[in-house]
Fold these 4 entries.
Entry 1:
Amino acid sequence: MAGPAVSQQPQPAPLAPPISAQRKADSPAPAPQRVHPLQASDLESWLDGMIPATLQQGKVAGAVVSVVKDGQILLVKGYGYADMARKTPMDGQRTLVRPGSVAKLFTWTAVMQLVEQGKIDLNADVNRYLDFKVPEPFGRPITINDLMTHRAGFEEGLKDVLVTDPKQMQSLGDALKQHQRPVLYRPGTVPAYSNYGTALAGYIVQRVSGEPLADYVARHILAPVGMNHSTFVQPLPSSLAPHMSKGYYSAANTPHAFELLSQSPAGALSATAEDMARFLLAHLQDGRVGAGQILRPETVRLMHSPSVVLPAGFDTMAHGFFLGQRNGRTVLEHGGDSVLFHSDLQIIPQERVGVFISFNSRGEADAAYGIRERFMTAFMDRYFPAPPAAEAPTLSTAKAHAQEIEGRYESSRRVQSGFMSLFYVLQGQVVVSVNPDNTISLSSAPDKSFREIAPHVWREVGGDRLLQLAYVEGTKTIVDGRNPAGVLQAVPLKRNSGVNLPIFLFALLTLIVAAFAWLAAEVSRRYYRQPPSLSGRPLLIRRLTRIATVADLAYLTGWFLILKPILSSDVAFYTSALDPVIRLLQVAAIVPIAGAVLGVWNAWLSVRSQRRWVFKAGSMLLALALLGTVWIAYVGGLMDFTLNY
C-alpha cells in the first residue's frame, strides 16, 4: 500500500505573536477547583441531575449522550422522548439521531483514507477529480485542503439543500452541478464555513472510489468500527427507520418530517449515540476499534494536526476537525445542526476521552444551542478543570485600538447573491462598541466584554475567548479565537444595516401611511362631492404615483411572503419549484423603479406649484420613500436576475 500522498501547503504567517498565558509573579494564585473522577457512577449521577431539568426548562423533547474513556465506552444514555405523542423514550443504544455537520468528520475520514492510499492529494486542484469545472475567478485553483479548512471561498447557499419529499431529492452530482456556489474570496485566504465545499469533497470520494458515498462510508468506516445502526442513506432503510427519533422545533410542537439533505456528505448521517462512541474510540485509538482499522496511526496523527497556523490561544482547523485548547487540554471538536437536531462531538486526546451529545429539538427560543455549549463547558470544568487565568493589565494602546476595531461587521459565511442577501443588509450584523474603561463589547455577546492584552488582541474579561483585529485581503477583519471557520468583516456603507434598516422602515411606513391617507382623502372627497384639487398633467402624475405606491407595497408584500419561511428556519421551502414565482418578482423590479421616477416627478411638480407647504413636504417624503424602496431592492439583491441563492 502506498504511503500518504500528503505535502503540506505553505502556511500563512501568524496574525499576531503568541500570547503568554503566564500569571504575573505578584498575582495571587486562584483557588484550585475540585476535580471529580470521570467514572461511570459520578458521570451518570451528574447527567441525571443536569439534563432532564435542562430539557424541561428549554422545551427540548430529548437528548442522547455517550462518553468514552481509556478505550472503553463509559456511558451511553438517553433522556426525554424520541416521540412525544407516544412517550417513546430516547435510548442511547437504539434511538437514531441526526448529528448534522458532525457527519463531515466521516467525509473527511474517507478523504484521508484515500489520501493514505495515494489516490487523493490534499494540495491538488479539485478539478482534477471532478466531472465539472469549479471556476477560478481569482486565478488560483481550489484544493482539497482548502475544502477541509473551509477556505475555498464559497458563498453560502440555501436552494434545494434540504427537502422532505424523497421525489425532490437530487443526486449528489446533480445538486453540486446545478447549484454551484459563487467564489467570494481568493482560495486559501478568508475562512467561510461551507457545506458545499464538504459536499464537493464527498463527491470526490465517490468519484475516486467508484462507490456512492453512503456505500463507501458504510463499507470502509461504519462496518469496520461496528457502527451497525448508522447510515448516510436517505430516506432511512426500513431496518433503521422505526428507531429514528422524531425531530421537533420544541417539545410543545408536533414533529416535522425527516430532513433529506442534497449535500449529503455535509450532514446526512443518522446514528445512535452508542455508534458515535465507537467512532470516538477509533479516533482516540490510532484508527482502530477492536479488529477494525479505518486509518493508519500516522494518518490519524496527521488528521489531528493543525492544517492552518493561527496565533497561540486561537482555535484552528485540523484536517476537518476544529482544534483548540479548553482548560489547558487540546480538544478536537465538531458541532452539528440540522434545522431540528443539534449535536456536538469532542475528543480530548491526552485524557483519552471523547464525548458526543445530540438534541432532537431546537427548543424554546433556540434553547438547544445554549444547552449544548453549557454542557460541554460544564463537563470540562467538572472533570478537567483549570485555574482561571489572571486578568491582564490594560495596555496603553487600549483606547486607540478599541476605536480602530469599533464598527459594524458581517460574517464571512453569508449569502450575497440573490434575494436572500436582503437579510444580511437589514439585520444580523455585529456591532463592536467601546466601553468607558476602553474594553470592547460585541452586540452578539452583550453580556461579555473584552480587554486588549496584546496589540490588536483582546481577551474576554473573566474568560479565555480571544479576538484579534487583522486586515485580510485588504478588509478590516475580526478573527474569533473560537471560530477558525469564519471571520467578521467590516461592512461597507452599501451593506450597512445601520443605514439600510432605517431606510427600509422609513420607506415602508411612509408608503403605508400615504396609501391610507389617500384612501381616506378620496372617500372624503367623493362623500362631499368635491372636485380634484389638481387637473391636467399634475393630476395624472399624482394618480400614477398613488398607483405606484400601492404597487410598491404589493411588490414588498410578495417578497415578504417568499422570505417569511426562512424566519422560522423553514429551509425546505426553498426549492426549484419556487423559481417561476421568484423570476416573476425579479421582473417586477420595474415596479419600484417606475414608482421612484413617478414619485420624483410628482414632487417636482408639487414644489413648482402654488399648493400649501404641507402638500409639498408630503410629496417630497413620498418621493424619498419610493427612492428608498429602489435602494433596498438593489442592495438586498431583489433586483439580481439570478435563481442561484
Note: The chain has 16 helices and 22 strands.
Entry 2:
Amino acid sequence: MEEKKFDLNSIIGFALIFGILMWIMYQNQPTEQEVAAEKAKKEQVEKAAKTPTPVALPIAAIADTTKTDSLQLEKLKGALGNFAYSATLPSAKNNFTTIENNLLSLKIANKGGYIVDATLKKFEQFEKGSGSLVKIIQENNASLNLKLQTKDNRSLDTKDLYFEPTLTKEGANQVLTMRLKSAADAYMEYRYVLKPDEYMLDFSIRSQGMNSVLNASKPMDLEWDLQTYRNEKSVTYENRYAEIVYEYEDGKDSYTSQSEVTTDDAEKVTYIAYKQHFFTSILLTDTPFATAKMTSENLVKDEEIDTTFTKKFSSIVPLAFTGGEINYKMNWYYGPADYRILNNYERNLDEIIPLGWGIFGWINRYVFIPTYDLLSSFIGSFGIVIIVFTILVRLVMSPITYKSYLSQAKMKVLRPEIAELNEKYKNDAMKKQQETMKLYGKAGVNPMAGCIPALLQIPVFYALFQFFPSAIDLRQKSFLWANDLSSFDAVLHLPFYIPFYGNHVSLFPILASVAIFFYMKMTTGDQQMAAPTQEGMPDMGKIMKIMIYISPLMMLFFFNNYASGLSLYYFVSNTITIGIMLVIKNYIVDNDKIHAKIQENKAKPKAEGKFQRKMREMMEQAEAQKAEQKKGKK
C-alpha cells in the first residue's frame, strides 16, 4: 500500500487558509455599541410580543360587537328602565366616599347612596382601652331605601342602584352629593353636609327631571333599617334601654315597648330615633312625615349568651311629591345619647333620654342634672361626685326624714291608749274607729303625717333611678374596684349562670343591700311599736319582718347587672339616712317631751275642724244605718 505523504507546500496552504478565516471572523465581530443596540431591539420585540396587537376587524365583526353592547344595554333597560343609564356610568362600582371630622367618620357607598359605616372617634366599645371604636353602622347592619314606582310600572329599590358621588367643600363644611341618574340631567339626589365638631349633619332628598319617569300619583316610601350593635359589658342592661323614640303631632313624643316585636303607627312625625343605651341614630325632617310605621324586634333571645346585636329597628315613611318632584330637607344624627348635646339643638331631642315623665323628669332636668354638672366641673373623680351628690340630696331630704320619725314617735306614745280602745270596742269596729279618731284629734296627732313624708320621697327616688342609668358621663369612668360606673362592678366571675342574677358577683349591690337591711330593721321596729294591729286587718308587723329580708335580697338580684354608680348611690344614701335617724332619735326627739305635749293638747279644748266634723257625721250616719238594719232583721 502506498503511504500517503504531506509535503511542506500542503502544510503552508492549510495554515494560510486557516489564518484568512480567523481574520474574517474577527473583522465581522460586533462592536460594543452594536451589541447594546441589538439588546435594546430584542427587548422591544419581546415587549411588543406581550402587548396584543390591534387587529383590524372586518365590518361584520364590528357589527357583531356593537350588537352585543346594544343587547346588554337593552337588557339593562328591560330591568331598570330609564335608570339603566346609571348602570352605564363609571361610578357604577362598589366604591365608597368618606367624609369625617374630629368626632365622626362616615363612609357612603355608591351602591344605594347611603351610609354604610358610622364611627364615633371619641368612644370605645365595652371598656376603656379596648382599642375598638364604637361603630353605629358597619358590615351591612343598616340600609336606607326609596321604593321607586315608575310610570312604566316598574318597582325599583334605590339600595340596589348605583349613585354618582361628587365631593365638594362649602367653607369648612364637607358636601357629598349622591345622584341616581336616569339621564344626564335627570336624577334622584341625596345630599350630605358634615360640619366641623358636629355629630349632626344636614341631609336632603330631592329629585330633578323625574316627573316624566316616576309615578307621582302616590307617595314614595322611604325605608330605614338598623340592627343595633352591642357596645356595653352587660347586654341585658344595655338592651333594656334600646328602643325607638319618636316625635309626632306638634311636639308629642313616645317610644316603642320592650316586647319581642312591637309596631307603632304615628302621624305628623318630625323625628325618629333608634336609641341604644348610650348612643343613638336620629332622622329628623323639616317637613313632617304624614305617617310613619315603626317596628322594634328584640334580638337578645338568650341572656346567658353574648350577642352581637340587641335590637332590630325599621321604619317606613311616605315622602309626598310636589309638582311631580321630591324635596325634603332633613338631618342625620349619629352620636352619643347625651342630654346636654341633644338639648342644645332645641328640637325636643332631650326627650330621647329617659329621664322620667312628669315631675320625675322635671326634677332631673332642673335639679339633679345642673347640680351634678356643677359638682363634676370641679371634682375630678366621678365616684366622689356621686358621694357628694348623695350627701346633698340626703341633707335636703333630712327635714322630711325628721317629720316622718317625729310622727312615728307620737304614735308610739299613743300606742297604749289605742290598745285600750281596741280592747274596749273589739266587738264594735265603727265605734272603735270613732273613738280612735277622737283620741288623735285631742292629742293633736295626724296618723297620716308619717305617710306624707314617705310619699314626698318617692319622686326623688324614682328620678334618681332614671338619672343614673342615663348619665353617659359615668360611662367607662372608674372608682375604687369598679372600672365602669355605668356598668356592673364584677369582683367575681362565676362559671355558671344564675337566673335573674347573672354569671358574676357585683360588690356595690351587696353593700347597698346590707345598708338597706339595717335601715329597714331600724325603721320597721319603730313602725311596729307606733302602729297597733287593727282588728280585721293583716298583721303589718309580721309582713314588715318578712320585708326586712326580702327587700335587700330583691335589691341584690335586681342591681347585680345595673350601673355600679346607681348601687353606690343607694349604699351611701341608706348609710347617711341611718346616721341621720340615729342623730334624730338620740339627740333631737325627746319621747318624754312628746308625751307631755300630747297630754297638754288633750287637756285643751279643741275646735272640731270641717274634715273631722264631716268624718264624724259620716260615721254617725253609717252607725245609724247599721242600727236600722238590725231592727229590720228583728
Note: Residues 382-424 form the longest helix (43 residues).
Entry 3:
Amino acid sequence: MDSDVLTRAGQADAAPSPSASDPLWWRSAVIYQVYVRSFADGNGDGTGDLAGVRARLGYLKDLGVDAIWFNPWYPSPLADGGYDVQDYRDIHPQFGTLAEAEALIEEALALGIRTIIDVVPNHISDQHPWFQEALAAGPGSPERERFWFHPGKGADGSEIPTHWVSSFQGETWTRTTDPDGTPGEWYLHMFTPEQPDLNWNHPDVRREHEEILKFWFDRGVAGVRIDSAALLIKDADLPEVGEKPDHPTEDRDELHDVYRSWRAIADSYPGTRVLVGEIWVPDIDRFTAYLRPDEMHTAFNFDFLARPWGASAFRESISATLAAHAPVGAPSTWVLSNHDVTRPVTRYGREDTAFAFLKKRFGVPTDPQLGLHRARAAALLVAALPGSLYIYQGDELGLPEVEDLPLELIEDPMHFRSGGTDPGRDGCRVPLPWSGDASPFGFGPEQSDPWLPQPADWSALTVAAQHSDPGSTLNLYREALRLRRELPELGDGPLEWWDDAVAGDADVLAFTRGPGFACVVNAGDDPVPLPAGTTLLLSSTPLERGALPGNATAWLRTDAATDPTPTITHTTEAGAPRG
C-alpha cells in the first residue's frame, strides 16, 4: 500500500466543514478515541505526537468518523498516563506545541472531523504550581484550601484522616513533611499520591476550570470529555463510607451545580459544544440525572461495556439504558473499550467475558479466534444501536490486548498499587501498527523503538495489510460506518425488539431500526436461519449456507424492494474473518 495513500487518504476529496448551525451532530456521532502517545510517531522519538496524528487525519476520514476524542495532551509528569495535568493551557512537549494543536483542530475540521479534548477536574499533578505553592505555604494557608489537607488522627497525627479506598486500590491519604523535617498534614488523593484531589467547594477551583473550558472552546474544540466526573465533590465532614446515607466521595448531589455552570458556558458558543461525562455510577437513574437538558449532553455507557457476552445480558443492558435515557431526552452512547479496558478481542475470548477492574490478573487464558469473532459481532451490534458510537484506536484493526509486556516496561500505577497482581492497562495502549513486517510497523520511522514494544506477529494486523483485504476487520468497520452514515434508520432514533425473528432462541438478539433495517446477533455457537424476507447488508462473519454462524451479527434490509444500497456480504475466501 502506497505510504502517501496510507497517511493522506481522503484529504484531497475532503468533505465540507461541519456546519456550525448543526445543533444535533453529537446525537449520532461516531467518535474515535486517540491515545496520542500510541497513535503515530511523527518525529521518531518512539512516542506518538500531534505531527503523527495530523499525518493520519486522512485515515480517520476514510474510516468514517465524525469526531476525535484526545486523551490528555497537556504537560504532565505522566505518573498516570497524562491524567496528572500540570498545565491545561499548553501541550506536552513530547506531543508537540500549542500551535500544532490549534492547526490539528483546524485541519481536522476541514475534513469534517470535530475535536473533543479531555479534562481531569477531580485532581491535578503534584507538580502543578497550585500544589507546589500549597506545600510551601504550610498548614492553614489559603493555598492549601484549594485541596484536601487535613491533620491526621491520633495524638501525634500519624493516623490517616479516613479509610476511603483509592480507585487504584490502596490508601487515599499521603502525609506531608514540614520545612523543619517533622511530619505534617495529610492530603487526599483518590488516585495516586502524584494526583492530589482538588477542593471543589473552593471558588478558585470552579473559576479556574470554567476558564479552562473557555480557553479550549476559543480554540475551536467541539467538546470536552470529563474524566471521573462523579468524584469531584467530597463531604467536608470526612465521614467513613456508610456513616451517612450519601457516599462521601461519589455521585454527590452538589455535582449537578458544577455541570450546570459548565453547560451554560458550552451553550454560549456557536455550533453546539458538548460535555461528555465519564461516569461510573451503577444506578442507571442516578447516571442519567447527569444528562438532564441543562447538564451534560452525553455520558459513557459503561454498563454495556462491562456485560458478559450473551444475548440476554446485552438485551437487558440495552433496554435499561434506552429506558433511562428517554425521560431526559439524551441519546445513549455505546463503547466496547477504551484506554483503561481490556481489548474486546481478548476479553470476549475468555471464559469470563465480563469486565471489572478488580478481576484483572496475569495469565488468564483466552481464545483469540473466538474473541475476534465476538469482537467483530459486537462492533456491528453497537454500531446499529441508537445514539453515538465510540471507537478506541486499534479496535478497528482487531488488535488484541498485549499481555506479555516485560514487567520492567510497565508504567501503569494500577499495576504497582495492586502489589503487582494487576497487569495494569498498558496492554491496550501499545502503539498502533500501520505498515511493514517488523516493529515499529510504521508507527514511527524505521529503526525507532516505540515506547512500548509491539508483538512481532502484528504484521498481518497493520493498516496496510488490512486495507486491501475485503474480509479484514478494518474494512468491516469502514463498511459499517459507511452504511451507518448513509442509512437514515441508523444513528439517533427508535429501536424495537424483533422477537418474531428470534423464535424463542435465547442466544439470539434481534431488533429493527425503523421499517427497513434490522440487526440480528447470534451469541450462541450454532448457526441460525435469518428471518424470511430479508436481504443481507453486512455480516461480521460469512454466512453458512444462508444461516448466520455462531458469535456473529448481521445487518439486514427488511424491505428489499425499496433498498437503495447494494447487498454486501462481508466475507473472505477462507470463510473466516481476519485482522
Note: The mean pLDDT is 91.
Entry 4:
Amino acid sequence: MRTKILGVLLAVMLLYGVLSYAIERFVVFPSFVLQERLEAEKDLNRCLEALRREIHYLDEFVHDWAAWDDSYAFVQDANMDFIRSNLVHTTFIDNRLNLIMVLDLEGRVLWKKIVDLKNGLELNITQFAEDCFPLSHVFMAHTKDIESSVAGVYATDKGPLLMASRPVIQSLHTGPPKGYLIMGRFLNERYMKTLADQTKVDHRYWLLHDTSIPAESGSIFERLQKNSGPVFEKQNKNMLFAYGIFKGLTDSSDLIIRAEIPRQIMKYAVNTMFFVLISTILAGFILLLVMFFLLNRVVIGPLGKLTERVVSLGNSKPPLSPLFLDRNDEIGILCCEFQMLFNKLTQVHKNLQQTNTHLNHEIRERKSSQEKLQSHRTRLRQLTYRLLLTEERERRRLASDLHDQISQNLAICRLKLSMLKASCTAVNRTRAMEMEEVEDILEDIIQETRTLTFEISPPILYELGLKPALEWLLENTFSQSGIETLLEGDLKKNQLDNSLSILVFRTVRELLHNIIKHANASQITVSLSQEASFFEIRVTDNGVGFDPEKQYKNIGFGLFSIREQFSSIGGKFLVLSDPGTGTRAILRVPYHLKHII
C-alpha cells in the first residue's frame, strides 16, 4: 500500500508540476512577451518622436531666419552684405546645417549651398541641381498663411535629408511673403548616433529603396504595409528588432526605422519562470514528503497493523485484544468492527463445523441408501425380466397343453360325434340335427382354443422366428381393428436369442394394443433395421399423439414397464410424440442378452 500511495502522490506531484509549467508557458509567458512588445513599441515611438522633435526644432530655426527683416530684404535685392554677414561657413558648422537655399516666389534659386560638415566641401546633389523649381514642388507646397510650414524627410542621392521650408516675411510676422527659406540636415550615421544617445535606444533609419538595408530587414517593408502597427522580429535570445515607418514628404522619402531592443524583460521572465518552476518542484517535493510521512503515520501504519492482525486472526488460538482502542476515528472504529466480526465469524465457524459434520453424516447415509436403492432397482429389473421369461414359459406350457391335450380331445370328440351322427341319420332325423348343432359348438370351441393358444404363446414365434410372428400379429391386428398395417425391413435368421425375440414380440404387441386403444390411428408401420451390434424396431402411427413424460407418470405396466425391461438388458426404448402429430416408438435391442444375476 505504501508503494501505491507513494505512486499516487508522485503522480499528483507530477500532474501539479505539468499544470504549473503549462500555466507559466501558456499564460504567464505570453504576458511577458506582450509586455516586451509593448515596451519595444514605446521605445520605437520614442525614437520616432525624437526624429519628429528634431524636424520641429529645425522648422523653428528656419522660421526664426525666415521671419527676419534682413532675410526679407535679401529676397528682394539679393545684396551681398547679407551673404557675407550671415551665410558663411560657420553658420553651417554651428547649426549643423548641410543645406541653406533661398527661393523667390517663382521658384528661382536666389542662393543655395550644400556642405559636407565632415570635410567642409560643397556637395552637388541631383535633387538640388536645378536653378528653378516648379511651383508644385514640395518645397513650395505652402498655404496662404504666412506662418505655413513644410518640414519633414526628403530623399536625396546622399541619403535622407531633414528639411524645413518657411515663407520669408518681416520680423513682425507680417507679409506679404517674398520668397522661401529652406534648410536641411543629412540623417547620417553621426546624426543617428546623436539620436540614439538622446533616446537611449539604438536605432537606425533607411530609405525604402536604400541598398544598404541588411538582408534580414529587406522584407520588412511588405510586412509593415500589411500591418497597421510596428513589426517585431527576434534577432536572437538577447535582442529584439522593432520596425516602423516614418512618412516623408514624398512617397520615395519614407523611412524604415529599426530599433534594437535588448530583451531584458524576456531574460527576467525566463529567470523568473525558472525560479518559480524550481521553487514549485522543491515545494511540491517537500509537501510530498510531509504528506507521505503523515499518511504513513496516521493511515498506512495503522492499516498495516490491522492487516497483520486480520491475517493472524485465523491462526491465533487465544482471543486477541482489539487494536487502537484509544482512537475514535475511522481506523479505531474499523478495528473494533473487525474484532466484533471476527468473534461472530468464530461462532459461525463452530456452527458450520457442527452442521458440516451432521451433513456429512447425512450424505453418507443418503449415499448408502441410494446405493441400496440402486441395487434393489437393478435386482427388481432383473426379477421383472425373469418374471417375464417365467411368464412366457408358463404361457408356452399352457399353450402346449391346450394344443396337445384339450384341442386333440375336442377333435376326437368331434370325430366320434360325426361318426355317431352318421349312424343316426337314417334312424332318427331329429337326433341327427341335434348332434350337428353339438358338432358346430365343438368346432367353435376348437377354433377358440387355437386362437387362445396363439394369444397365450404363438407357436409361429418359436417355429418360424420373429418376423413371421410380427407378420401374423399385424394381420391379426388388421382383421380385429381394421387399421392398415405395414411391415418394413428384414431380419437375418438365427441372429436373435429366443428370450430377445419373446421380449420384442411382447413389446410390439403391447404397443399395438396401446395404439388401437388410445391413438385413433388409421395406419401403423413397423420398421426393422440391423446394425453391427444391435437391431432396431420402429413402430409408427398417424394417430393423435400424446405427451410421453406425462404418460410415463400415469401408467402402470405400459410404456414405463417397457422402458425398464429394455434398460435391464442393456437396450434402449424411446418414444417421440407430440399432441396431434402421431407417435414413433423406437426399440434398440442388442443381439445377445446381458448377464442376468
Note: The chain has 14 helices and 14 strands.
